[in-house]
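User: What would this chain look like folded?
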Amino acid sequence: MRVIEGFPEVDGLRDGYLALGNFDGVHRGHRQLIGSVVSRAREAGRPAVVITFFPHPAQILEEEPPGLLTPKARKEKLIAALGVDFLVVLPFNRELARLPASAFVREILWPYFQPRLVAVGFNFTFGYQGTGTPDLLHRLGEELGFKVEVMEPVTHKGVTVSSTAIRNALDRGDILMAKELLGYWPVLSGNVVGGDRRGRELGFPTANLAVPPEVKLPAKGVYACLARFQERAYKAVVNIGRRPTFGHNLPPTVEAHLLDFRGDIYGCELELELRAFLRPERRFTNAGELVAQMEADCTRARAILSDPEEG
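Assistant: Here's the prediction, encoded as structure tokens.
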């Protein structure tokens, strides 16, 4: 897959099949839409193109934007795995946000891409104040000469698959529901940075993960995870929160204790695949009580991560 940043001036993009959207999470619904575009493009011998935006529009337009399910690099990796030929990342800023919906199609979508088909989700909006709808896109397509397909809602166990529904599941610590809506286990990733070494003093050394601030964190608490780095996976217990045992108003941290691992991974990129919520974050009265609970957390995490049903 070729990634193009900005408005493309390259051969091979025109007369293709396009999937247009933000695609945060690249969840089941997104993958069904993009997969359909790729299949149609292959049948026609034309390029399969995904158009998305960076930053996510909510990061620019909302005072308190929702956390991202997938930062830019991970989103690109997930989209590439779907067999897309081109991923075009359009720069989203206030100038683009002020562009009327019809102008977005007439001045950007049609001149740069001249698509045969544009596929969008049922809830996709575009243009100034989100006034562009799939119906408007369809009317403009009839005028300019491209087809429009709108994917109906994808449901799973009675829940409509959406980025919002996934964020809500993460807010509840419902990792299994988030996984079922995403189609894969939720992941946090970042570089390992130095911490206060309290875990090491207690006999549970932790890797402190520098998760980008725009990324969505799940509910505060302790999780069973698989920690991946350098193409290996380790069972791990992860604490996400403010560590109330050690003080008040501490900044939130993501700390992973890798089971059966010894070594220095400072500076390494670490990927945490969340598998199960173990318990909420709580304050302990003394170090001994905390250590006993951490031992129990590790025992429970081992059992969960060793269960083939959790694979």
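The mean pLDDT is 91. If you want, I can go into more detail on any region.
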